[in-house]
Specification:
- With about 425 residues, the protein is an alpha+beta fold.
- About 30% of the residues lie in helices and about 15% in strands.
- It contains 13 helices and 16 strands.
- The strands form five sheets. Strands 2-1-15-14-13-12-11 form a seven-stranded antiparallel β-sheet, sandwiched between helices.
- A hairpin with a 5-residue loop joins β13 and β14.
- The protein starts with a helix and ends in an 8-residue tail after the last helix.
């Protein structure tokens, strides 16, 4: 078995130096677990360890699960990637969709939004958390409260109540102009929430599809859109980070107050509460490292436990770059990758992809807002899953996360990990990516 001590020292050192409150890393090589190591704590009250069965908010790592669900439906002939959304979502009206031009005027969309537009974030949709100087349409999302429950960004600009169903979400979304013509370029957005509605419209329930077709067959017993009361003691606290203090690079951590960050009955994640009626395909899942590893390991071959989840064609499509000349993903979203597949960032050329010289073509990955992350390398049969519960993408953790993944490869190859150099390079205050 490979000596993974370099990764362990890196994880321990990151927590000891205060880069984050807790960090857990698991790595598989050729189907065998070669690393299962955590440091720090999952909470602030009882100092519980952050380990493989700690329940965490996985946020945008929900997106690849939706991607798999859509591809499963494609494999079954229930949809095609070039289908217009309106074919499956009855409330979606193609003729009513407009595009906001740079001069502020509106024009009609030249073609309908398709399933593949949503999978690749090229539909022209947006997120409300982008600042206005970055996005010309984000303000509409804030004003129309187009944030499904479990949203991580609170704001006071909402002029309407929260949506009460995915159907209502899609209906209200069409009042917002697109940021660009469908298929024109990449814009990270709520598009995967719309795909959640597609799954719901075909199957009857997004949560039901996940449970019946993915989670139960894979044995993902702790993954859901909420936490049952009897599991709240394993639910991690959510922290935020702030730069400042005695030195420019000092960092302090605070528990996020209220229902988003709490781990008791006041949490919005308490399963069965009114907030659980709307399930976010873009960021609503909670899970554990134990569970998500089962999902990620399935992505190596598309099968697990004698069950085939994805065809070879769907696996190839998920891992292939679909952006091409339209540009690569912003480094702050997917550092070290040079393309984007279906809901995941991808490596198309390991020699060109920063920090991915050890990985194979088709390596794919994504992360969550609380600094969870995963990597699947089908060529070398390597899987890495990282969990943390820290909000703060303007800090260092996405960069650290990429370095931990790289350290896994270095250890697997028998190379030394220069822990001191890595930690010095990703000290608090550095921009992610």
């Amino acid at each position: 078995m490979a000596n993974m001590e370099g990764v362990k020292r890196l994880v321990d050192g990151a927590v000891e130096r205060g880069l984050l409150h807790g960090l857990h890393t698991r790595c598989y090589k050729d189907g065998a677990c070669v690393l299962d190591h955590g440091a720090g704590h999952a909470d602030a009250e009882k100092q519980l360890p952050l380990d493989g069965d700690t329940i965490c908010r996985f946020y945008s790592m929900t997106k690849p699960v939706v991607g798999v669900a859509i591809l499963m439906l494609r494999d079954e002939g229930l949809l095609a990637l070039d289908d217009p959304v309106s074919k499956h979502v009855p409330e979606w009206r193609d003729g009513d969709i407009s595009v906001r031009k740079d001069d502020g005027t509106l024009e009609k969309a030249r073609r309908p939004i398709t399933i593949v537009d949503l999978l690749t974030h090229t539909a022209g949709l947006d997120y409300g958390f982008w600042p206005d100087e970055v996005s010309k349409t984000a303000k509409y999302y804030r004003e129309l409260a187009l944030e499904i429950p479990h949203a991580i960004t609170g704001h006071t600009e909402a002029k309407e109540p929260p949506v009460r169903s995915l159907q209502e979400f899609c209906t209200r979304l069409q009042r917002v102009p697109l940021s660009h013509q469908p298929g024109e370029r990449f814009q990270y957005s709520v598009s995967i929430d719309v795909l959640g509605r597609v799954v719901e419209a075909i199957h009857g329930s997004l949560r039901g599809f996940f449970q019946e077709r993915i989670f139960t067959p894979l044995g993902m017993k702790d993954t859901d859109f909420g936490v049952p009361e009897e599991k709240l003691d394993r639910f991690a606290s959510l922290f935020s980070a702030k730069i400042g203090g005695k030195t420019p690079k000092s960092v302090t951590y605070e528990l996020i107050p209220g229902p988003i960050g709490s781990r008791d009955k006041s949490t919005v994640y308490l399963l069965g509460g009114p907030q659980s009626k709307v399930h976010s395909g873009g960021g609503g899942l909670v899970s554990t490292s134990d569970d998500y590893c089962k999902f990620a390991r399935m992505l190596v071959t598309g099968a697990a436990g004698g069950v085939r989840f994805l065809s070879e064609q769907s696996l190839a499509d998920m891992r292939a770059d679909h952006l091409g000349p339209r540009g690569i993903v912003k480094a702050s979203l997917a550092a070290a990758y040079d393309g984007f597949g279906l809901t995941v960032a991808v490596t198309t050329d390991a020699g060109r992809s920063h920090g991915r010289q050890h990985s194979g073509k088709g390596t794919h990955s994504w992360g969550g807002a609380a600094n969870t992350g995963f990597l699947v390398d089908p060529v070398n049969d390597v899987v890495v899953v990282i969990t943390a519960q820290l909000l703060g993408y303007n800090l260092t953790v996405p960069t650290l996360r990429a370095k931990v993944m790289l350290a896994c490869y270095q250890c697997l190859a028998g190379e030394e990990v220069d822990v001191e150099a890595v930690l010095a390079a990703v000290g608090p205050g550095e921009f992610a990516g």
